[in-house]
Design goal:
Blueprint (H helix, E strand, L loop, with lengths): L1 E5 L3 H13 L3 E5 L2 H8 L6 E5 L1 E2 L2 E2 H8 L8 E6 L4 H9 L4 E4 L4 H8 L7
Parallel strand pairs: 1-2, 1-3, 3-6, 6-7
Antiparallel strand pairs: 4-5
Amino acid sequence: MRALIVDDDFISKEIMKSMLAQLKVEVHTADSAAEAFRLVQVHRYDYIFLDQELPDAIGTELKEALAPYCAERCSFAMVSSTDASELIERCQQVGISHCLTKPVNPKQLADLMGITGGIE
């Protein structure tokens, strides 16, 4: 299983990367939308985690732009420091079925990915 984390916040990205590594997921990271575009053209991902507020893009808009480059089996999840109902609604409109609030809960992450065993 392979995941891409697109987040410009180093600490948030590293924490999530560590959690995914404990779940035996191969993880790639991108600091920007431009870097994410480069990676999706080279690699296939099962999950892409998008920060809503990137320096060069809005997460929901980035999902729409990345989707044509992703396999049909790729799932998108939004990761945000806000738990606003407007964001959840916008995510659903663009086909993002999961919204995680920072800091990400390890159990929620494992459940979202359908991985048993969890994170210690």
